[in-house]
Amino acid sequence: MSNIKRAFDHGKAFIAFITCGDPDLATTAACVREAVRGGADLIELGIPFSDPTAEGPVIQAANERAIKDGVTTDGIFQLVQELRKDVTVPMVFMTYANVVYSYGIKRFFERCVETGIDGMILPDVPYEEKEEFAPACRAHGLSFISLIAPTSEHRVAMIAKEAEGFLYIVSSMGVTGVRSEITTDIGAMVKLVRENTSIPCAVGLASPRPNRRRRWPTSPTGPSWAAPSCG
Fold first, then answer.
1. 22-26, 107-111, 146-150: lowest mean pLDDT where?
2. Which backbone phi and psi does 178 adopt, to 5 degrees?
3. Domain containing 139: what range?
4. What is the total count of domains within the chain?
């Protein structure tokens, strides 16, 4: 059983996202440990990028501050290595293709293994172009986590059948951030996923305002919640 799968052992999981290096890596480490103490079952660590196309104003600003303050990919690997001395929940990176490509794909995934990362999310790499990264990721024992969006439609079954780790279900169109409401039929998306795989699902990208939040399905086949940034 992969470390990621263990996060969903009790049927549901809470996933926290944190932008690394905002305002500094020491604060990131403290946030990760506090998130775990608060019940996070899996941590998504965002590696800052200069053009985070999937992000809204909050995470864009976090990326800009971290880059301005000199955070590096090597520094983030060192952070993960230090966290692994006491943090046992699964951790995955969320970043952009250019970050991995410029570091060197093979070298990047080797460092992931050395430091204790369990998987990879690249929101700007569509299913049809994942072969540049997914095989190398898999060869190093890491999960290449796919995303399903409201516009995926006929591609949902195809993506689900090849999913690894968990499936990231994008809750609404646009970038990350709070919405006045979410109108996507999450249940229908999950039903289609369930017809093609038993892999866990997590809903993310956007969250409704507190007074508009709906209850997600409570069965083990329903989706878990992936949090917006606390970076």
1. 146-150
2. -80, 140
3. 3-229
4. 1
